Amino acid sequence: MNKQIISFPVPKTGKISLVVAPKTVIHSLMSMLAVLALRGRVIVVDGGNCFDAYGLARALRRRTHQIQPALKAVQLSRAFTCYQIVAMLAELPVDGTPVIVLDLLSTFLDENVNFSKRQRLLDSSLNLLRQISEGAPVAAWARAHPAAEGEFQQLLMPLLETAHDIWELQAPEIPDHQLPLF
Amino acid sequence: MPEFTGWLLDLFDDPREGLVLYFIDKKGARHRLTRPFPVTFYALGSDAQLRTLWRHLSNRPDEIKLCRTQRMDVFKRQDVTVLGVTVKNPYQAGKIFHETAAQFPGLEYADADLNISLRFAAETGAFPLCRCQVWSDEAGQLTHIKVLEDAWLLKATPIPLRTMSLAPDVAPHHAKPRYLIVEVAGEEYHLDLHTWRPLLINLRALIQRHDPDLLLTDWGDTWLLPKLMAQSEKYNIPLGLNREVGRGVSWHEERTYFSYGQIIFRGQQIHLFGRCHIDRQNAVLWNDYELDGTIEVSRVTALPLQTAARVSPGTGISSIEMLTALREGILVPWQKQQAEMLKPAADLFTADQGGLVYQPKIGVHKNVAEIDFVSLYPAIMVYFNISPETILPNPNGENLVPALGLAIDNSQDGLIPKALRPLLEKRIEMKKHLASTPNWDPFRKNFKRRASALKWLLVTCFGYLGYKNARFGRIEAHQAVTAYGREALLRAKEAAEDMGFEVIQLYVDGLWVQHPQKTRPEDIQPLLLEIQERTGLPISLEGIYRWVVFVGSRQNKKRPVANRYFGFFQDGSIKVRGIDARRHDSTPFVSEAQMHLLELLASKDRPEEALPEAVDYLRARLRALRSGHVSLPDLLVRQRLGRKLEAYRTPSPAARAVMQLQAAGKEMRPGQRVPFIYTLGKPGVFAWDRPQAPNPHAVDVARYQRLLLRAASIVLESWGMDEEKLTEKVLSDASQLDLPVPPKQHPRKHRSNIPGVVHPAMDRALKGQIQ
Hints:
heterodimer; A: alpha/beta; B: alpha+beta; Nucleotidyltransferase, domain 5; Palm domain of DNA polymerase; Ribonuclease H-like motif; 7-stranded antiparallel β-sheet; 5-stranded antiparallel β-sheet; 23% strand
């Protein structure tokens, strides 16, 4: 997937936009974030420690020379456990500020937490996202995890059911054999 | 009332008697005492939620006491209302808690899954292996315990542990062991593993006779004890591995986890009751600090000896923090909910920087002083009061963290500094003591091992501050520590430059400085005092190098690499970082050769004088390699299996070795190290633990030659001998093979076939014809 080909429309209030894609999509997400940041404050909840600050700075620089105010407008918080994601979403201000959730499912794939418990915590997170989306634009990215295919699919289902706009992107298939040079 | 002085050996919960404790009496006896020991966990939530839980628990048949109370929540920085659930028997507490948490998943819980030895230490002050005075009643119940030597004492009275060592004659994953070696009370016994009945009878006799406090085994967790127990059941010969009658052993499952970017495997564990079992092959850092260090970890963390031997230093530091919290009445969260504060993206550029590195100047440097901050990050946490609850998002307040929009609340000591202070002080004292202890002192090894155990605990305490599952971790605190660290190192650099030193390298907590006239330790003292004055942190001189070499990157020799160097101190010792001699995955053949070359360089006043000798040495090593005189174990490479086999798209050599083992019915898990030899042809490796013996003629000599010459060139290239030149120089001679000494006279049967040599009969015939 060419990292700059896809550009996402900015999310709208009352809707949850969902992107299901491999990690290369982060560049496009940073472009979308740059557009939002130039309009005002944006909250980013990072569930996979994948926020690309330099990528965002580059995306902003393509649009403005004054990147510092825009970088300050992006408010970031990182979560490293599924408990933290729920606690973080519960504490977000409901004041119309757009919310972008990066790699939402990553912490829910933690094998140290019982699967049914993770499902319950994900449900709580989705309920909170629904509530936030009533007053603010919400976009979430679910990073495709081929290594945890079974669990990932089970956790993705409720997320797909919750989202209003769904973008699903796939990485290009890699051939099993070396391609000929000529 | 019976009273004795001794050491607390083991303690555990019991379904009937609450808490069982085993003591070693200083007079030689072993005592088993019991004590009722109710434990409490807490539930946090809204009033309505806690009321519902109260009603639910009130209806349980178990002996439970409920109370509504206030406890300190360290993250909220205030007392919060909680429901305290006190379970009369600690044995049942875990089960009751897990059932409650499953039924009331919306509540938060605290003090829920703590080791019973931590609770006992918090309540009585007595920790495993502490020297104590004990009072009990006629029924064998512990009535009072008084600690005589605390965990922070530098020289504790040695424990008269009775130890029995059990080990098979060979590693069971490598070959089938033939006998079991038992060492006890200075005697060694070999018990035949092919005749189980006599083995079990004899082993039982030895255990009964010596009644060891500690079973020290090799592969006891993963092979020996499971085997012994299975045979003991088959032949109906109980071994008495436990001292506690009527208890089975405690099994802990194997596991694989990530730590510092590496995948780590821990085999299953077998814990005993009333005596301890340590498997040397499954114990953490055993090669580094052995039993002395493990005892030290057990004492300072208050974890039972068998647990302390098997947990990572991170778990150890977590235990120290939890123990401090229990003593201070602070809630220990079951699952930490606290996430990172919302912060502007721009702040990440300043906050997420880690330690400061100033790339070194590549090449040889003479008379360089290495100065290190003593346990820099723990010292910062302690001296600057960094803890999850002391970090405030207040850019206008006092005590600002350098370059971050955070301030430190110094109105009270934080939990983390409270927990770490005695550990740090003990480590510093031990370092001082070690520096003044001569090599011949019989206690020096003991001190060194204990100091190493403390070092590992302190090394991990910083990482734990940012670790996702740490009970008292917090990203902002983690970032504050590195911010202070960078500031301290910059101030040290300024101090050095102000005093006329040239800074050769900065690396997180140390700096390498050079001054043409200041080449003795006493010349560096003023700089140390100045840095200490400017930073407020303890600093010490690691040593002065006669010469030190900073090497470039493997890909681009002109690019410097931090923390990759070797040097020779004025006191004669050699220090090596980041090169083959130090790496775990290099072969002994290569790493020993590299170390030998370093010793050669260090043995000369001018290192370049050692080059001819170094070349000769390498030629000799290559000759030995080609003629098969390097033993196969010296060619072993030990690489870690980084993932499951099916996850490899292009299998690494380790993965290929594991495939061979799998084909032979041997399973390996991610995180385990796989020993193998590089061989000719495909698959290019031979797994050392395969049932069949490796073919010495299949060794990939060319590959080992490359590895050797590459490692040698890293050491020698600063004296003009890069890999290309070295290879040319060494191989120009090494290609000459030793030919067998020719016989003085050719064998008769060959003579006729050799041109110019005439057979004697023919010779005579020819002569006759002529005549």
